[in-house]
Design brief:
4 strands
């Protein structure tokens, strides 16, 4: 009984940290234009063949980097523009100027497939 419980707990922990790693890896693509920190999971749950993680993080725009990036590599900044628009809409003018961090709460939905879990 004890061994079964230990195996069950360790499998839950590793699966949970797997989802966190995927979320953090996804956020990492924006590190050149924004400082992302204080990630924390709020809750996670299953819904049919989906695993949902609700999480929160702080983000502060690196305005000097965004301006430089816009001048030197327009294609790169265009790829990140949906992220920038979403942040400016959620966080307001103080965020855009880089003076104040913003707290973002979001959720990630993972779908179970024959090849494992994928982020939708």
């Amino acid at each position: 009984m004890f061994i079964t419980l230990v195996v069950f707990i360790s499998s839950c922990v590793s699966r949970s940290s797997y989802f966190d790693e995927i979320i953090l890896q996804n956020l990492k693509q924006y590190e050149d234009i924004a400082e992302i920190y204080d990630y924390r999971k709020i809750k996670e749950y299953n819904e049919g063949n989906k695993h949902i993680v609700v999480y929160q993080y702080k983000v502060k725009l690196k305005t000097d980097k965004v301006l430089k990036e816009a001048q030197t590599n327009i294609l790169d900044i265009l790829k990140k523009s949906p992220f920038l628009v979403e942040l400016s809409t959620r966080c307001g003018i103080n965020f855009i100027t880089g003076k104040q961090p913003c707290i973002i709460e979001d959720k990630a939905i993972f779908k179970k497939t024959a090849n494992g879990w994928i982020l939708k």
